[in-house]
Amino acid sequence: MSLHAIIARRQRALIASWVRNPLVQVQVEAPGALPGLVFISDAGEAGMAGGVGRRDERNVAMVTRPGDPDTQASCWVAARYSGYRSAYLAFIREAYGVRATSVELAGFDVDHLLNRARSPQDSSFIRIEAIPAAANQDWGRLFEKAASDPRFYANQARERRTMSWVICAKLAGQAPPNGPGDQAGINRLVQYFVSIGLDAAEARDGLNSMLSFAYKFR
User: Which domain of life is it from (predicted)?
Assistant: First the structure.
């Protein structure tokens, strides 16, 4: 199986899990919180958390349970840790038995699902995945920079964070709107969320709320 096929399968699995239950975790306070968190719908069915390769478990953790790694394995890194691209490739090797290289990641960024600048502690653990590069960079420039403002309470104190409309859109390669006033861009995203089974009004309210909040201090 190619790396790109694995990435696509993981994206679909994670988005489908979020559609079923919006409380999919993307950041936790420490590795000890990870064993129950592959997908939140399975929380309570303990997984196993361990290191990835020879990497220090205080920096990189892999959570697994028996079964399909698309839904039963995830990779997490400490917010302070900078080697997450190579950690992701090591995770793919261990979870899927596929030895991929950095070159094969062309077109994708390996990144934190939640911008690490939004983590209140360097020791917090954030889930990483491969994300379409263009969408990831556009969201980073137009939304996440604003959302990472340290004046927001969640960025100061909240160590457990869940998936959001923005994270789902990034994973799916959907481009961001050009701010809270870009109704055409918001409408386009609403249509995408409807296509994966979500309510249009809820999607619109969620996007408007997140964009307005993120741009509060701009």
Answer: Bacteria
